[in-house]
Design goal:
single chain; alpha/beta; Rossmann fold; Nucleotidyltransferase, domain 5; nine-stranded mixed β-sheet; seven-stranded mixed β-sheet; 21 helices; 23 strands; 30% helix; elongated
């Protein structure tokens, strides 16, 4: 009996399977081949596909096949100084990030750049191997040669067991230093990262990445890296799968970030995962800040990486089966919620609104929290007819004074450290009264004043948008229009303040004045005179002591304003919070996102307590919309009300 063996012909290179360059179905190819024109197009496509596959192997840096949505990361680099790429397990962050970093190294030539990972061992095994794999063959041929030639301007010294020995110098004199987070950031001061030639123009398609950070970068290192990149304007790319939840560094770059794009999440399809997002969606692109540095945040879903075995046996989809929501968010979508100890877990980006969208109609209130060695943190709020509370101004404002509090490097110090806005600028009661008046002033554009110079006038409705285009506050615009119609003096317009509230503890503090002891409310309500000259410095301003309720009662009252069914669709009046904060009130927003009750933190020195104190005094006092004509009785109002 003779055995017949049939040889299996190897597949033609043009038909090599590849998940990033899929072939048409056999039926589609057969249909195309049925006509001469279709056959020509099919052959051209297969030839182009074959060449793309070959180039991706021979020159992966310049001809790599990019993972889905990689262009979104490119777009974030065009707009931000830091790009934080948070991905699920095996999502492909580093595979996409290393070539982008190397493109900057080759494009911009001479200069120093850092490539960092947790420790030397993981850097050698992962990051440095990926750098080697992506180097062009012309560079790889130089391996170990430069170390034997003292005249060489390059240093390519790679071995699998020890990587690049900490340094790779390309022939264009770009130095890539391989550091790790176990080193002391204090040992790396004075460096300048990025392109060294200031005349060399930037290519919009190639971001000048001064530091590529992989995995868990600690906050001290991140702050040092930003300083090293600041001199030359280089950017930072940080890639991390937040397996262990929020770290101080993640908190610093994501706190208060706003979602600008989301996408369906297969493993969390049955619920509203985050308020404001469609059912079954998770964030893809978010935007935030780290101090005054812009941050772009990209969440890379594991399901997008065809090389991750996401849907295969034992893949991430199987690993997430039956696991809790937080586990799935972190491991499949690179997202983690920072709710540990937070006093306001329902506060989020949905409570922060553009200042120009705050309602014009409402009753205004002020609340201030005086401090001896600190500035008086102060809020202005507008209560509307629907029972909503809109915070429209804060002082010290972030644009002028910076952060009231900042993320602490100590993970357990949940309420942060004091920021540059806290130390007093030396104001006393007289200066604060004048400051409040100045901030409450309504400035009328010159063009309107010119038209209303002779008293009441009628300005056509079509003219108002152009006349008011410089007035960003809708309330101010409404007051101006009403004053013009009534023929009022336009040089002294101010917001009407229904009541001015003050921290009850500070209100009772007494100090000597003209030989008499006066509490702070009395001093604020009196004429302020210069003690030496007797010149009047400020007129009386009446304040009311806010209720001195327990801290937890105040926190509970704030949470009542924040409550809504967070895993159902958010709808105005039906399922919605009642507290909204202007996006210009960044210090209050930071505090709302951060504040933990003192017993839950490591220290009783709560860096962000003052904004929260102001808000809790406001809501426990009970602030209401006052119908024109005074239907709701209010207390005080002040000489400037």
């Amino acid at each position: 009996m003779t055995e017949t063996v049939q040889a299996t012909r190897p597949a033609h290179p043009a038909f090599t399977p590849h998940p990033l360059l899929p072939l048409p179905s056999p039926e589609a190819m057969a249909a195309a081949a049925a006509t001469p024109e279709g056959q020509a197009k099919l052959l051209a496509f297969l030839a182009e596909r074959r060449r793309a596959l070959e180039l991706s192997v021979s020159d992966p840096l310049n001809h790599r096949l990019r993972l889905p949505n990689a262009h979104k990361v490119d777009a974030l680099f065009a707009e931000n100084q830091i790009v934080y790429e948070a991905g699920g397990k095996r999502a492909g962050k580093t595979v996409d990030g290393v070539p982008r970093f190397l493109q900057a190294c080759f494009k911009y030539g001479k200069g120093k750049r850092w490539c960092m990972q947790d420790n030397a061992k993981s850097s050698i095994a992962n990051l440095q191997q990926l750098v080697w794999d992506n180097l062009p063959e012309t560079i790889r041929r130089l391996n170990l040669k430069g170390s034997r030639d003292a005249r060489a301007k390059y240093r390519v010294h790679y071995k699998p067991d020890n990587g690049f020995d900490g340094l790779l110098i390309l022939p264009n004199e770009c130095e890539i230093h391989f550091l790790n987070y176990s080193q002391n950031p204090g040992d790396f001061l004075g460096w300048k990262l990025g392109k060294a030639d200031p005349v060399l123009p930037l290519d919009p398609a190639v971001p000048d990445i001064g530091a590529l950070l992989d995995e868990n970068c600690p906050l001290p290192w991140l702050e040092n890296i930003l300083l090293r990149c600041s001199d030359l304007g280089a950017k930072v790319h940080w890639m991390y799968s937040p397996q262990d939840g929020i770290t101080p560094a993640i908190k610093a770059v994501t706190r208060g970030a706003v979602t600008v794009e989301s996408a369906p999440a297969e493993l969390l399809a049955e619920r509203v995962n985050l308020p404001g997002l469609p059912k079954g969606h998770m964030p893809v692109v978010r935007k935030g800040t780290f101090g005054k540095v812009s941050v772009g945040i990209f969440h890379r879903f594991t399901q997008w990486n065809p090389f991750s075995n996401y849907a295969g046996k034992g893949g991430l989809r199987d690993l997430c089966e039956g696991r809790d929501r937080d586990y799935i968010m972190r491991n499949a979508y690179g997202y983690c919620e920072d709710v540990r100890g937070r006093a306001f877990p329902l506060f989020g980006e949905w409570n922060v609104v553009p200042s120009a969208t705050i309602p014009a109609a409402g009753s205004n209130y002020l609340i201030t929290d005086p401090g001896g060695s600190k500035n008086w943190f102060t809020l202005w709020a507008r209560a509307t007819a629907g029972g909503e509370l809109w915070i429209y101004r804060e002082w010290p404002d972030w644009e002028t004074y910076g952060d009231w509090a900042v993320v602490s490097q100590l993970p357990r110090k949940l309420n942060g450290d004091k920021g540059p806005a806290q130390p007093t600028i030396g104001f006393g009661p007289a200066q604060y009264k004048n400051l409040f008046l100045e901030l409450e002033s309504i400035r009328v554009p010159a063009a309107i004043q010119a038209r209303a110079v002779h008293g009441a006038v009628v300005i056509p409705a079509a003219d108002w948008p152009e006349l008011l285009k410089s007035v960003n506050d809708p309330h101010h615009a409404a007051v101006i229009k009403a004053a013009v119609a009534a023929g009022e003096d336009l040089t002294e317009l101010r917001e009407r303040i229904e009541d001015r509230l003050i921290d009850p503890r500070a209100a009772r503090n007494q100090s000597a004045s003209d030989g008499m002891y006066q509490d702070l409310i009395t001093k604020l309500g009196a004429v302020s005179r210069n003690e030496q000259s007797g010149v009047i410095e400020a007129q009386p301003m009446n304040f009311t002591a806010a209720p001195g309720l327990d801290l937890r009662d105040g926190v509970g009252s704030i949470n009542e304003y924040l409550y809504f069914k967070s895993h159902e669709e958010r709808l105005p009046l039906v399922n919605s919070p009642r507290l909204f904060i202007s996006d210009r009130c960044r210090n209050l927003v930071w505090a709302m996102n951060t504040y933990s009750l003192p017993t839950d933190s490591e220290t009783t020195d709560d860096a962000c307590e003052d904004p929260i104190d102001c808000l809790r005094y406001l809501v426990t006092r009970g602030v209401y919309y006052v119908v024109p004509g005074g239907k709701v009785q209010t207390r005080g109002g002040g000489s400037y009300g």
